[in-house]
Structures are given as structure tokens and as C-alpha cells.
Design goal:
Layout: H1 2-19, H2 30-47, E1 58-65, E2 70-77, E3 84-90, E4 95-97, H3 106-116, H4 122-133, E5 141-142, H5 150-162, E6 171-174, E7 180-189, E8 198-207, E9 213-220
Antiparallel strand pairs: 1-2, 2-3, 3-4, 5-7, 6-7, 7-8, 8-9
Helix pairs in contact: 1-2, 3-4
């Protein structure tokens, strides 16, 4: 019954989204992407008891280049409480559901990266996957293990003072057979939270010698705030 309701809501969401027209900045696979996103929002609404849903339109709220061939797009339904979904879109129009989806496809993204940028090392692949899988809805990322700017270092310092004692350190472990385990911490804003706290996730990725993703896991840390930077810098997605 829930699946049937989800399908009906998905169709309604898609018709509404398409009837409002699409932005010029949206990717070529717009209709197919909207269908997948609408179904995700509809299923979420149905399982929470919203038989008619709250979304009337799916909108593209921001984009960011991830690699030379892949762009991240953030989508949100018109409901003010809607979560933000991340879709990776390749230059040829192929796309993969990632952050915020119940069944993300980071293996597809890893395959694209290894195919088009075989020179990328395991850590760089891990960073790209972590950004794409982030569910915070933010386009402001900090690598606390390797901060690049003064603002990043402030975030990293605050995180280092609050992180759990057993928090894993960033590393790349390479086995004799070429298999690699990549561990990356990524910090970003919770974009839909009123006070926009920072949240760090630890990601681990198991890559084969060719860069294909064989397995992954994620762990969330405690949230924290930084008064001097919490309301400055690049605006977050959905704000």
C-alpha cells in the first residue's frame, strides 16, 4: 500500500515540478532526475503518514563542480521541512543518487572517477565520495585533517577539541593485493538547522586496485558551533 501511495505521489510531484518549468542551469537529464527525486520525497512522505505529501515542486537549489567530469546538484522539495537530496551528474547526462537518498549509489560515482580520472589517488577519490554522500545539505565542506584556509583551521581546531576520544584518524591503508581502505573525516553545516551547527562524519571506503568501490561506512560525530564563523562565508544550500 505504501509503495502504491509513493508511486502516486511521485507522479503528482513530477507533474507539478515539470509544469512549473525548469531552470536553465539544470542538467540535461532533468526530467529523469526529477522523477527519481520525486519518488524519494513521495516515499518518505508516505511512510511518515503524509498521504498527500507536502511537496508541490522539486527545485534545484545549488550546484558544485566535483571533478572535471562530474557536478553535484542539490535538490529540495517546496516544503520548508524538506530534506535536501544530492545528485551527481556526469557530463554525458548520466546521474547517480547520493547524499540524502535511502539507497545512495557511491559505487557509480567511484566508477566514473576511476574511468575519467585514473590518475586520482585513493584519498582524493575518498574525499569526492564523502562530499557527494554528505546528508547535511551544505555546500561548505572542511577537511579537519587537512584544513586549507584560516576559516577551515578554526573549524578543525574546534572539532579537535570536541571529537570523541575514539574518533578514527584520516588514513589510507594499502594491502599487498592493491586493495585500499580510505578513512576520511568531513565537516559541514547542517543547512536546514536554524543555528546551523557544524557536523563531522567519518567515512571509510574500500577500493580495489582500479578504484572501484567495494564497500563503505559512515559515522556521525557530535555537533558543535563556532560563533565567529557560524553565520559567515558561503551560504549553505537551502538557506
Amino acid at each position: 500500500m505504501i509503495k502504491l501511495i509513493a508511486r502516486v505521489l511521485a507522479c503528482a510531484f513530477l507533474m507539478q515540478a515539470c509544469s512549473t518549468g525548469t531552470k536553465a542551469s539544470q542538467p540535461a537529464a532533468d526530467v529523469a532526475i526529477l522523477q527519481v527525486i520525486s519518488a524519494e520525497f513521495a516515499a518518505k512522505a508516505a511512510v511518515e503518514g503524509e498521504l498527500f505529501g507536502t511537496a508541490r515542486e522539486v527545485r534545484l537549489v545549488d550546484s558544485m563542480s566535483l571533478t572535471k567530469d562530474v557536478t553535484l546538484h542539490w535538490y529540495q522539495a517546496s516544503s520548508p521541512h524538506s530534506r535536501i537530496l544530492t545528485v551527481a551528474v556526469r557530463r554525458d547526462g548520466q546521474f547517480a543518487a547520493l547524499g540524502g537518498f535511502a539507497s545512495p549509489k557511491p559505487d557509480v560515482l567511484a566508477s566514473w572517477i576511476s574511468e575519467t580520472e585514473p590518475e586520482r589517488d585513493a584519498r582524493a577519490i575518498g574525499v569526492a565520495l564523502a562530499k557527494a554522500l554528505s546528508e547535511t545539505g551544505s555546500n561548505r565542506f572542511v577537511l579537519p585533517g587537512a584544513p586549507e584556509t584560516t576559516a577551515d583551521r578554526e573549524v578543525a581546531s574546534r572539532w579537535n577539541s570536541t571529537r570523541p576520544a575514539d574518533w578514527p584518524m584520516d588514513t589510507v591503508f594499502t594491502q599487498s593485493d592493491g586493495m585500499r581502505i580510505v578513512r576520511i573525516s568531513l565537516t559541514s553545516h547542517l543547512a536546514r538547522s536554524y543555528d546551523r551547527p557544524w557536523l563531522t562524519h567519518a567515512y571509510s571506503f574500500v577500493l580495489d586496485a582500479q578504484g572501484q568501490l567495494l564497500g563503505w561506512a559512515v559515522r556521525a560525530g557530535p555537533t558543535f558551533h563556532i560563533e565567529s564563523t557560524s553565520n559567515s562565508g558561503t551560504p549553505d544550500v537551502g538557506t
